Amino acid sequence: MLQQPDATLYEGKAKILYATTDPKVVIQEFKDDLTAFNAQKKGTFFGKGAINCQISATLFRLLAEKGVPVHFRSLDSPRRMVIDRLEMVPLEVVVRNRVAGSLTKRLGIPEGEELSFPVIEWYYKRDDLGDPMVNRDHIRILKLASDAVLDEIRTLALRTNEILLPFYRERGLILVDMKLEFGWNSSGSLVLGDEIDGDTSRLWDAGTGEKLDKDRFRMDLGSVKEGYEKIYERVVGHAVES
Amino acid sequence: MLQQPDATLYEGKAKILYATTDPKVVIQEFKDDLTAFNAQKKGTFFGKGAINCQISATLFRLLAEKGVPVHFRSLDSPRRMVIDRLEMVPLEVVVRNRVAGSLTKRLGIPEGEELSFPVIEWYYKRDDLGDPMVNRDHIRILKLASDAVLDEIRTLALRTNEILLPFYRERGLILVDMKLEFGWNSSGSLVLGDEIDGDTSRLWDAGTGEKLDKDRFRMDLGSVKEGYEKIYERVVGHAVES
Predict the structure, then answer these.
(1) CB contact under 8 A, A119 and B141
(2) Which residue is closest to A113 within chain B, CA to CA?
(3) SS3 letters across chain A
């Protein structure tokens, strides 16, 4: 099943996709780079790619076991995973359990407040536009996805949240919110893609309330690496090997 | 039916509401002030209040004739109308027929492009937050309106658009978009409130494409008064008396 990378298909801010000899399969490599505010702020730390790759692999395996269709196939190396090649839906789906980030300003509710149900938001994946929030009418106008596909994505996103919330809770982590992306694999199935880790999720220590995710980097809180390592330890189940 | 104003109930950026001796009825007075960008930009011109009041009165009468429930009862003076006292739904409903304003940046589509169907957007009426765009989940969290009420508002907003589009078209005006507000009157009916004019609608000359609405003020295009007067002439049916 493992393939050698032979060509860069796509290089993004935090990941590189390599083609393999199987057109249905690609390798997703996690970079050590960190970006925020639409790549206006940049950073890096050695090992971040491997940490996020293994957190994502653990969570994708868990989700697959629970019946959520995912792109993940196997780990290829500490920072590379073999995944289904997807045609992505150009939307980011944000699932929120507590108020943080842009939602504090949008609703005028203090950070940390628990939401009475998970809130879903759609963002149009367009770096040049700053990934704006969109509603269903906008999505229809842009023909990004049909209503039926949006309903399916919403259901999968909420199911993913239902699975991850208790998983994190049992490990002393609060899942504040997360960004998910979906795409179509070569069999025509809609599956969860991208990554799930401290780059794309807000995770707080349940005991201290300490932010452990990319907000440490965004907000210049320091100890960015240590935050990611704490997420790794709780999710993967052992300390990061150095 | 006419009442003397005896107390200011509310003073907004462009209108003042006065209580009357009938608790079910208020007087809505249109100010000559113009504001934009959440009142960071301010202006005024003599007669603007009367122009907008009479445009709104004409449009509310038309909508009422066509079966849309409205707050409007009668004109009290050139810049004052007698209306149902409403408990407002704290949402602005924007109906868009063409791309303009914030939608150009949100979707990356050039200004003026026709939308294949009218797009609805919801904004949370909160000056201190800058009236942010919200989706149905946000509205549910904030308990601003039930899903049934949102559906009813959406239907009324689209019906209003269906009535006004040909009305304007026959008068050489393109209705690019408009902001509507709804509220509950003393009988518990949901009715269209606020105002409908060049302050709250984008209206372009169908022949020349010239902007005639508040965008002249927002964008420093000059001849703001002349733009509003052109809208008045087309909608009310005769020139502004000076």
Answers:
(1) yes
(2) B141
(3) CCCCCCEEEEECCCEEEEECCCCCEEEEEECCEEEECCCCEEEECCCHHHHHHHHHHHHHHHHHHCCCCECEEEEEECCEEEEECCEECCEEEEEEEECCCHHHHHHCCCCCCEEEEEEEEEEECCHHHCCCEECHHHHHHHCCCCHHHHHHHHHHHHHHHHHHHHHHHHCCEEEEEEEECEEECCCCCEEECCCCCCCCEEEEECCCCCECCCHHHHCCCCCHHHHHHHHHHHHHCCCCCC
Shortest CA distance from A138: residue in chain B: B119
Judging contacts by C-beta atoms under 8 Å, the chain B residues touching residue A126 are 108
Å from B93 to nearest chain A CA? 13
For A143, which residue in chain B has the nearest alpha carbon?
B116
pLDDT at B75 over 50: yes
Query: Number of CB pairs < 8 Å for A and B?
Result: 66
Chain A interface mutation, best of B97, B99, B138, highest count of A Cβ atoms under 10 Å: B138
For the stretch A124-159, pLDDT in tens is 999 999 999 999 999 999 999 999 999 999 999 999
At the fourth CATH level, the homologous superfamily of domain A3-84 is Phosphorylase Kinase; domain 1 (3.30.200.20)
CB contact under 8 A, A117 and B138: no
* Chain B closest-CA separation from residue A95 CA (Å): 11
In which region does residue A117 sit, left (phi positive, over 0), alpha (psi from -120 to 50) or beta (all else)? beta
CA distance A109 to chain B (A): 9
What ipTM did this prediction achieve? 0.94
Contact criterion met (CB < 8 Å) for A135 and B121: yes
> Hey, are the CB atoms on A117 and B141 less than 8 Å from each other?
yes
b/e for B94-111, b at 16 or more Cβ within 10 A?
bbbbbbbeebeebbebee
pLDDT tens readout for residues A18-39 = 999 999 999 999 999 999 998 8
What are B119's two structure tokens?
A: 């797009």
Distance from CA of A234 to the nearest CA of B (A): 31
- Cβ neighbour number for residue A39 with a 10 Å cutoff: 12
Residue among B128, B135, B140 minimizing CB distance to A121: B135
Cβ-based neighbours of B38, under 8 Å, separated by 6 or more? B127, B130, B131
Q: Any idea where the domains of chain B sit in the sequence?
A: 3-84, 87-223
pTM for the full model?
0.95
Which of 3.30.470.20, 3.30.1360.20, 1.20.1440.20, 3.90.180.10 would CATH assign to domain A87-223? 3.30.470.20
